[in-house]
Design a protein that fits this description.
alpha+beta; 4 helices; 6-stranded antiparallel beta sheet; homodimer; 36% strand; binds threonine
Chain lengths: 159, 159
Amino acid sequence: VAKKVRGISQDVNVAKVTVVGVPDRTGVASAIFDALARANISIDTIVQNASINRITDLTFTVTKNDLTKAMKVIDPVVKSIGARECTSDSKLASVSIIGAGMQSVPGYAAKMFRALYEAGINIELITTSEIRITCIIDESKAGDAVRVLHRAFELEQGA
Amino acid sequence: VAKKVRGISQDVNVAKVTVVGVPDRTGVASAIFDALARANISIDTIVQNASINRITDLTFTVTKNDLTKAMKVIDPVVKSIGARECTSDSKLASVSIIGAGMQSVPGYAAKMFRALYEAGINIELITTSEIRITCIIDESKAGDAVRVLHRAFELEQGA
Ligand SMILES: C[C@@H](O)[C@H](N)C(=O)O
Ligand SMILES: C[C@@H](O)[C@H](N)C(=O)O
């Protein structure tokens, strides 16, 4: 299982905005990201899970420097789309395992999540792509997370 | 804005499982994915948004053929971790825009979401990586989605 992971990456410059209680109807994601694009705010990660009773949350991450501006931009959109509120967290980091073909071989996510669990690190958000599993965690745990993931996947630190 | 997107991909063999109301404490994600790995189930996408009042949902996608098995495997885990329930949807597809450096230039997510909105396609889940923005949608809309995204990003179909 360790073999397909070729690197661990981290980003400690992570802040998140969660638009809470967005109506799950067409045009809502578009409204949120149009506003951010017009304000020229770069977005790193976007996470939206499935809705329940046609309501869901939409989270995006920005650099810590952009958080105040993003919240200002989003505030009127919250009202216009009928979302409940907008929350933010500026004390986050992301850690990722990077590799090819991880989806075809079960066990990589399990191994990553177990390593974080055993180090007492709570997983705040999860997002994945074909070559990457990313966990957003508390920024104070980023160093520990990178270390335990290197060990779990048998990589030299600096890989 | 169109220039950084070099391709549109789709996957119509998508089914999702959502573990609803999972307690947001360490070890929960690990328990879910340990069970799936032991059953040798390949996981495509994982989505977990931020918790509210220490409760969140965790969604993962599998092939449509693996859905029944995944639900069987997850059922006892739902109880053991104290989640509320487990739901599934076998009628999904994913569409992605693929490109390099999209995060450094605002507007790609906005353009993708607007194209889907204008085509009347609801976005069920969103997940991203550095090179990819993925929307999970109703499987019946996959063809339309691919077509409107090619047009929005000025790509020849087949790109
Ligand atoms: C919630 C949001 O993604 C909505 N479903 C949309 O399509 O815009
Ligand atoms: C919800 C789940 O991700 C939990 N926070 C964990 O760390 O396992």
